[in-house]
Amino acid sequence: MSEKKPFRPPMDHEEFRRIGKETVDYIADYLETVQTRPVYPGVQPGYLRRLIPGEAPQDPEAWEDVFADVERVIMPGVTHWHSPDFHAYFAPGNSYPSQLGDMLCNALGCVGFSWAASPACTELESVVLDWLGKMLHLPEHLLAGTAGAGGGVIQGTASEAILVAMLSARTKVIRREQQASPESCDHDVMKKLVAYTSDQAHSCVDKAAMIAAVKLRKLPTDSDFSLRGSTLSAAIEEDKANGLIPFFCCATLGTTPSCAFDKLLEIGPVCSKEGMWLHIDAAYAGSAFICPEYRPLLDGVEFADSFNLNPHKWLRVNFDCSTMWVRNRADVVDAFNVDPLYLRHDNQGLVTDYRHWQIPLGRRFRSLKLWFVLRMFGVKGLQQYIRKHVSLAKEFESLVLSDDRFEVSAKVVMGLVCFRLKGSNSLSERLLQKINETRKIFMVPAKLRDTYVIRFAICAATTESSDIVHAWNVIREQADGVLTGIQNGV
Ligand SMILES: Cc1ncc(COP(=O)(O)O)c(C=O)c1O
What we know:
Layout: H1 13-32, H2 63-74, H3 96-108, H4 119-135, E1 151-155, H5 158-180, H6 186-190, E2 193-198, H7 203-212, E3 215-219, H8 229-241, E4 245-252, H9 264-274, E5 277-281, E6 306-309, H10 311-314, E7 322-326, H11 329-336, H12 367-401, E8 406-408, E9 416-421, H13 425-438, E10 444-448, E11 451-457, H14 465-487
Parallel strand pairs: 2-3, 2-4, 4-5, 5-6
Antiparallel strand pairs: 1-7, 6-7, 8-9, 9-11, 10-11
Helix pairs in contact: 3-12, 4-12, 5-7, 5-11, 8-9, 12-14, 13-14
């Protein structure tokens, strides 16, 4: 019989101290030199399965062997989101104070679903969301530390914030309709519910409507890709005439395809008049409202029942951190309140229990990283960062405008420029394919109605003017090739 060895944990405190410091060095080296790596990986689907065994090891492995596989197995398949050559999607948040906040969150490892589960977790979140709310000049009724009924919460993603808003609105309207017609069941009301958003809204609004099992109308936008109040009004009238119940509208500030802004000051009064829930999704652009010059774009937020932005996009906080404020926390709690004995505590009802504000039960101590970031950058440091990104986008826009083979496809308001080669969609499609094949820069496309555009987003915290010039040179060089190829019939 083989002798049983006592189990020894893979790392003791001393080893963690040493290896942890080495790992921090590796992370700092990685971020300092990230631009030396091709921004987009050159691997094919399934590459990783061939590089590691199909089963977990029976016996413990040494850290040195595990860590060596980061460069051998992982890095070849990593898209480097924090490289100044990354211009896809929207800016991903990152900073060292935020990373340290996440490390501490992991170490504490508390799962703060209720106040009692870890009081600091709940209380810091509520205070820091008030801080950020005040930085954004949100109306008092959305803040927790006031006489109002509202408050803030950190969701994992904007998708979750929008789903929570839609489900809360659904519960609220079902209760209202059942009061008016006590004989109607949930299903009778639900089948008549209709939600609205624009044809430029993020696909997570579609997903929320799928999960909530309600109809969603995607409304057409104006020439600036903004949803107008009159369009919403007309759709509501049509639907009411057909016996439907309009109950929810999701307006977007900073749409994903082109960073357009819905007209809140027109949409808000329509929602108020109809007794509809207004949610504002400002996942990317919302961070910019900490700068007074961009705050007017948020005018009309006073009509909102809920509002979200993602500090994990444009506020130097690492994924995940989507901040959400609600006008009436009771509307959310009513929709999500389940109360088994094992989760109850003595202060129940007197304090915030965030488990009632979200889909999962468990939640991380995400406010730590937001708190560290707000304190270590200060409002001024974060404003400077936003302004720098916008000015880099303007710089890129001027380069595009200086070359008459190209056109800019939408107003440049924040850190995103949508552009294309003049002519057919297929020209720009070919151009983007060629650019991304170089792996020198990385961008993604969007469709603005029927027009194919290339999105150039300022993403990395370390992007400089020289990176914009570098990107433009790559784009021009590839455009030369595409246009010459076309001329030569290739
Ligand atoms: C306007 C907008 N809303 C929602 C989302 C979805 O964000 P999340 O990944 O946090 O769900 C995005 C993502 O880019 C977005 O741009």
